[in-house]
């Protein structure tokens, strides 16, 4: 078990995570694309939105429970799809799903998971959500949808913002792969992470479980890498989304919306929810922080579709601000990965406990007892940008009037 005194905040979990997980997988989690400006902005932007402190209100017995797409949740937080979770800790997807289900929040399994759909379902009692990347091999994508339906996933999360990969410099420098290539630098670094290494030696799950064994010709690390790098489909468009919606037939969430016009189109397609997301700053570097886009998107489509928020959440206070802005749910990725890498299933549970406590305390200090009553009245919105007016033009001096010339009569 993780001692709460070791990690009273998500940032403390990160310090444990950093020490216990190999550099390659730490860097995969803790970076963005190109200059990482959007990755940084996603968290920093929350500070602009100030909270209204209210006092002398009954704030006893606070309730964080809510619903996301009709499913009851202990708090409006889901575990986001994170690639290579099973490389952060042995059997990571199975353990994270188990922790989420015990806690009472949704877990989202990604297409690029180490543990397969079938593995996660066999080791957990309740349905989970599945995130789909559409591949050039549309037959494989159709098979994934059918497999998700067969294991009774309760929602399909279709990612729209990864038609091609944004460049992540650290992943290239580290030669990111699953399992890691046994180069001298990798071996030297892994030798300093004995807990991680022992866990990996004790599991058979070290490849992309949803791909290996399900794609013809993909049998080893080299063929898997070649196939994966060529498969993200740049032809994915709104007609493809409509096709997948009909093929799936269940609850559909569209992830990767960060623009009002795209949100309007997505809402018109009959999705159950959209996720305002910029892929955690890992795709378009220079895109706006999601919390800055949340308000305009809620105003545009919030009466037509549930709006959720992903990217940048590290605290329960961030969750509160997103809900106050109008989101019906939020997603955490790095926050729970820190817990997983630090202490496995117990670490994920600890991360969720930290977020719920912070959310509950923030509610109370803002004078709210029920998360369902939280709204924009709880926020002091950021002031408009201050601009210095141009200097006034110097006043023209009035010409002195010439004295009247008296004429003699």
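^ Assign residues to that structure.
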């Amino acid at each position: 078990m993780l001692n709460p005194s070791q990690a009273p905040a998500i940032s403390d979990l990160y310090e444990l995570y950093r020490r216990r997980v190999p550099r390659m997988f730490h860097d995969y989690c803790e970076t963005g694309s190109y200059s990482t400006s959007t990755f940084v902005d996603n968290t920093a932007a929350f500070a602009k939105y100030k909270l209204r402190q209210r006092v002398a209100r009954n704030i006893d017995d606070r309730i964080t429970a809510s619903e996301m797409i009709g499913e009851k949740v202990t708090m409006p937080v889901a575990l986001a799809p994170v690639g290579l979770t099973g490389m952060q800790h042995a059997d990571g997807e199975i353990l994270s799903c188990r922790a989420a289900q015990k806690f009472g929040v949704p877990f989202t399994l990604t297409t690029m998971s180490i543990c397969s759909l079938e593995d996660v379902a066999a080791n957990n009692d309740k349905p989970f959500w599945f995130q789909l990347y559409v591949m050039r091999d549309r037959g494989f994508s159709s098979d994934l949808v059918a497999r998700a339906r067969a294991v009774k996933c309760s929602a399909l999360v279709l990612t729209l913002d990864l038609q091609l990969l944004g460049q992540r410099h650290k992943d290239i420098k580290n030669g990111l792969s699953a399992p890691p290539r046994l180069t001298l630098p990798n071996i030297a670094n892994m030798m300093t992470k004995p807990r991680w290494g022992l866990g990996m030696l004790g599991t058979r799950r070290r490849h992309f479980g949803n791909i290996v064994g399900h794609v013809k010709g993909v049998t080893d690390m080299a063929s898997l890498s070649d196939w994966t790098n060529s498969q993200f489909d740049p032809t994915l468009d709104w007609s493809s989304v409509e096709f997948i919606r009909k093929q799936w037939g269940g609850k559909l969430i569209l992830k990767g919306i960060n623009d009002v016009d795209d949100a309007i189109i997505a809402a018109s397609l009959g999705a159950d929810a959209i996720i305002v997301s910029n892929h955690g700053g890992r795709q378009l570097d220079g895109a706006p922080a999601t919390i800055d886009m949340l308000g305009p998107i809620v105003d545009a489509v919030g009466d037509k579709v549930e709006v959720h928020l992903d990217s940048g959440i590290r605290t329960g206070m961030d969750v509160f601000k997103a809900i106050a802005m109008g989101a019906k749910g939020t997603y955490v990725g790095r926050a729970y990965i820190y817990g997983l890498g630090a202490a496995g299933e117990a670490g994920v549970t600890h991360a969720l406990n930290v977020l719920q406590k912070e959310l509950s305390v923030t509610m109370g200090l803002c004078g709210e007892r029920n998360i369902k009553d939280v709204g924009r009245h709880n926020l002091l919105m950021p002031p408009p940008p201050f601009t210095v007016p141009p200097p006034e033009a110097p006043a023209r001096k009035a010409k002195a009037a010439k004295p009247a010339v008296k004429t003699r009569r």
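The first strand starts at residue 50 and ends at 51.
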